[in-house]
Amino acid sequence: MKGRVRPKLAVWKFASCDGCQLSLLDCEDELLQLAELVQFANFVEASSKVQRGPYAVSLVEGSITTAHDRERIQAVRADSAVVITIGACATSGGIQALRNGADVAEFTRHVYAHPEYISTLRDSTPISAHIKVDYELFGCPINKQQLVEVISAFLHGRKPRIYSHSVCVDCKLRGTPCLTVTRGIPCLGPVTHAGCEALCPSYGRGCFGCYGPKESSNPASLMQHLSTHLGQPDVALSRLLRSFTAEAPPFASARKPYEPAT
Amino acid sequence: MTARESTSTVARPLRMEVSGLQSLVAALWTAGYRVLGPTVGEGAIVYGEVRTIADLPAGYTDEQDAGHYRLRQRDDGALFGYNVGPHSLKRFLLPPRERLFTTIRTGKQLAVEPEPVPTEKLAFLGAKACELAALLTQDRVFSSDQHPDVQYLARRRGMFLVGVSCTKAGGSCFCTSMGTGPKVESGADLALTEVVTASEHYFLVEIKTAAGADLASQLPLRPATIDEQRQAELRIADAATQMGRHLSTVGLKELLARSTDSPHWDEVASRCLSCANCTLACPTCFCNTVEDVTDLAGDHSERWRRWDSCFHDDFSYLHGGSVRASVKSRYRQWLTHKLSTWIDQFGTSGCVGCGRCITFCPVGIDLTAECAALQARTT
After folding, report:
1. Contact residues on chain B for A183, CB-CB shorter than 8 A
2. What is the SS3 string spanning B12-26?
3. For B233-249, how does the pLDDT look when each residue is reduced to its tens digit (9 = 90+)?
4. Of A72-86, A106-120, B74-88, B350-364, which range is least confident?
5. Average of pLDDT values for B86-110?
6. What is the reported pLDDT for B379?
7. Do B44 and B174 lie in a common domain?
8. Do A173 and B294 touch (CB under 8 A)?
9. From start to end of A17-134, where are the E strands?
10. B237 and B363 part of one domain
């Protein structure tokens, strides 16, 4: 790598909490080494010095919730060779997508002193609903080691070592006995994309589904089992799938039978 | 595995007191073994280090059914009064993650550092008959003449096994269907049967190998009486009548081979989560993947092996896509390999009837019920 022009990396924020791009700053041990390999050309959370594009890689955090952002993401795409979306907001619409299908005007009346200043789209949508995305990194927030892995894979021209299997696999690798089977705890692990190394189950808490649906996710079957065998009430099942990745299509459709009639 | 197992002397069973079991554990540590066995973990009986018999799950049992496992207390203080739990011996012989070699680049030089061959001597106390059958099944996979697995065989060669026959069966058990239990017949150096009565608590000990005889010679044992032998046999016979599940293996290999287009696979796929729990809990499923890790600069790379599963999309990924894109095709592959093509490949069934895949399926899919459904469709 040495002697070559370092590729320009940009970090963009849309509707989000900043937690995912903070993961990049949180890469304390790797950050200096990373800075030798790429130029942080546009990363306002780290530096107000911004270089113009085009960029070799853009990391995009957040969902599209305003008409302005809908335009801005097109400019990001046009200025970037590779677009990698990071986190639940960018990949599924995030927790703010819970408003999708509800009356947004009524929400704004209740929440804001001056709702007339609020200009927002009806739905919160993932970046991939607007532009072609080259790679999606899941999580709420993302796992910083996975972020380094994706950047490293990009720099070396190889496939990132990121798994699309269930969180259960990580419980099994760790040796954590299944919480649902041994303690009757509802857990989204079997339908959720790995990436957290089964953090919550290792502390005895069922998976929250932060990483969204795994490949070939079948939450409908899991919900039915939790309902009929674990006696989980409908409201609990609907809430289980109404969190960080609520609008990811497999989760959104699987909770429908358990939602209160409106 | 070879010389030790071939000992055919049928010695008279011996009687060992509970204190003798403590001497057995101590003798193994003294002989340089790291002794593993059942211990009480979070909500389940898991495998861990056994320093003294106080580490064993005294007075515990388990309750098992499809998608259901609960630790329960029993009132007799038995040390081995439960069936197999979430862990199996493959955890120790084929670790979930294992580094194979390291490559270091210095300038234009590449140095490959192979991983040292494992030298740790492992002993396992309390292996049930199905666990030992699974071990022999994995041995056939990893000791083939063409592709012997160096790491596996190094761990396996030095292993000392204390088997324990089951005196109760669980709700997911069907070892009698597979001919693997509940009595420990082979695969162990010593075979124990625990007997707890109102007034006594002792073990019947059978010596199975020369290494077993060697260890037994250091223990306080005496020949068992006919009644003591009968007490042990009665309890094993009891376990055989308690099997919670049954698998009819007659014609099953052929049935699966001709059932590739059965509509039943779609029905299973509607329930299957493709989460891989069945394959990872299975003591014989051996699929693994090999991957390379690099540091950011690309000067240091490592090759690792990790557990994988035929339920993963990536697992059958070839140029252009996954060969088994649908969950239906993945479940069919798993069941057909386990119970049919495994026999073509390795000469035995891949299933030992331990029931882990049934108990640890989060939605309780039951291999024996799925086979029965396939059998019912064709009759």
Report:
1. 43
2. CCEEEEHHHHHHHHH
3. 999 999 999 999 999 99
4. A106-120
5. 96
6. 61
7. yes
8. no
9. 39-42, 55-61, 80-86
10. no
B182 belongs to a structural domain: yes
Distance of alpha carbon A145 from its chain centroid, rounded?
15
Q: Minimal Cα distance from B95: which residue of A?
A: A173
B256 & B370 share domain = yes
Provide, as residue numbers in chain A, all residues whose Cβ is less than 8 Å from the Cβ of B366.
none
Instruction: Tell me the chain B residues in contact with residue A35 when contact means C-beta distances shorter than 8 Å.
Output: none
Q: How many CB atoms lie within 10 A of CB A47?
A: 10
Quick one: pLDDT band at residue B296, thresholds 50, 70, 90?
A: confident
- Chain B nearest C-alpha distance from A123 (Å): 30
Cβ contacts of A204 on chain B, cutoff 8 Å: 42
- For residue B197, name the pLDDT band (cuts at 50, 70, 90): very high
Contacts of B49 by beta carbon, 8 Å cutoff, 6+ apart = B34, B35, B36, B39, B55
Cβ–Cβ < 8 Å for B262, B374: yes
Residues B38 and B182 in one domain: yes
Measured between CB atoms, does A221 come within 8 Å of chain B?
Answer: yes
Q: Do B43 and A182 touch (CB under 8 A)?
A: yes
The pTM (predicted TM-score) of the whole model is 0.94
Mention every residue, 6+ apart, whose C-beta is less than 8 A from residue A189.
A166, A167, A168, A171, A179, A180, A198, A201, A206, A207, B275, B362
- Are residues B219 and B130 part of one domain? yes
Q: Looking at the domain assignment, is residue B247 inside a domain?
A: no
* Domain assignment of residue B341, yes or no: yes
CB atoms within 10 A of CB B1: 15
In a domain, B275, yes or no: yes
**Which chain A residues are closer than 8 Å to B65 by Cβ?**
none
Q: Cβ–Cβ of A175/B96 closer than 8 Å?
A: yes
Q: Could you give the domains of chain A?
A: 8-156 (3.40.50.700), 167-258 (no CATH)
Strand B14-17 to strand B221-223: parallel, antiparallel, or no bridges (unpaired)?
antiparallel
B chain contacts of residue A186, beta-carbon cutoff 8 Å? none
Q: Are residues B275 and B347 in the same domain?
A: yes
Range of the domain at B40: 14-241
How close does chain A come to B296, measured CA to CA in Å? 5
CB pair distance less than 8 Å for B273 and A222: yes
In angstroms, the first-to-last Cα distance of chain B is: 42
**Which of B241, B272, B289 is at the close of a domain?**
B241
Residues B270 and B211 in one domain: no
**ipTM given for this complex:** 0.94
CA B29 vs. chain centroid, Å, equals 23
Q: Which residue does chain A place closest to B362, by CA atoms?
A: A181
What's the gap in Å between the CA of A6 and the closest CA on chain B? 13
Mean pLDDT of B38-58: 96
- Residue B223 and residue B307 in one domain: no
Chain B: give the shortest CA distance to residue A52, in Å.
25
Number of domains in chain B: 2
pLDDT, tens digit (0-9, with 9 covering 90-100), for A137-183: 999 999 999 999 999 888 888 889 999 999 999 999 999 999 999 99
Domain end (from B220, B241, B262): B241
